[in-house]
Amino acid sequence: MKLRTAEQLIDRLSEELIWRKKELSEVKSLIETKFSISKHNALIRSGICLLYAHWEGFVKLAANSYLEYVRMQKLCYKDLASNFLALAMKEKLNQVKETNKPSLYIPVCNFFLDELNQRCELPKDVISTASNLSSEILKEITSILGIDFSPYSTKSVLIDTKLLKTRNEIAHGEYSISDKEEYLELHTEIIAMLDIFRNQIENAAINEDYIRN
């Protein structure tokens, strides 16, 4: 389904979070159950990997869904907020920076002089987490989308160390463990950040933040 309306975007994000939260809730319930220490450790290690998978997966999907929604609004370049205009210009600028020929800057200049009234062409599915959604990559994504990074600015240790670093250690076969209370705190924080990210994108779509003021 193409995301032509804010309601369709909101529905997609809601559906995505429902099944992700349900799966994470099932794992949380298991971890809260009394098992042997070895079983608890195995569940917690699995739970951290799953927490990261849903964190990265939802951020990537939600970001690209918002980009799809903006693309479907069929705006002119001149009407785009600067962050989306920069994204639209990325390929042109990439071609230019790979050479020292001044002549290749002429089409870029002509674009800004003569083509801003044309309908924009935004790239598809270009927002990447690089399979390592660190706080710095998240900051870049929020900048591309034109949403506020400040709700995550105090979460860098949680994102980079407690979640990403631990997940990478587990994924690379290292025996990295956390206790139950640490996991439950991490679960609560990640769920909260997922909700914040969804709300930010929904509000940006409803408030038409993608349109130039």
Notes on the structure:
The protein has 213 residues and is an all-alpha fold. The protein has one domain (6-206). Helices cover 67% and strands 0% of the residues. It is built from seven helices and no strands. It has helices at 6-32, 37-72, 82-97, 105-114, 135-145, 156-171, 180-206.
Show the helix and strand layout.
Blueprint: H1 6-32, H2 37-72, H3 82-97, H4 105-114, H5 135-145, H6 156-171, H7 180-206
Span between termini: 29 Å
As for the number of domains, it is: 1
Percent of residues in helices: 55-70%
What is the CA-based Rg, rounded?
A: 20 Å
Secondary structural class: mainly alpha
What does the largest sheet look like? none
Mean pLDDT: 90
Strand content: under 5%
Say how many strands there are: 0
Query: Which spans have pLDDT < 50 for at least 5 consecutive residues?
Result: none
Tally of alpha and pi helices: 7
Globally, the shape reads: elongated
- What is the N-to-C order of secondary-structure elements (H for helix, E for strand)? HHHHHHH
Q: Quick gist of this model?
A:
67% of the residues lie in helices and 0% in strands.
Top keywords for this entry?
213 residues; mainly alpha; elongated
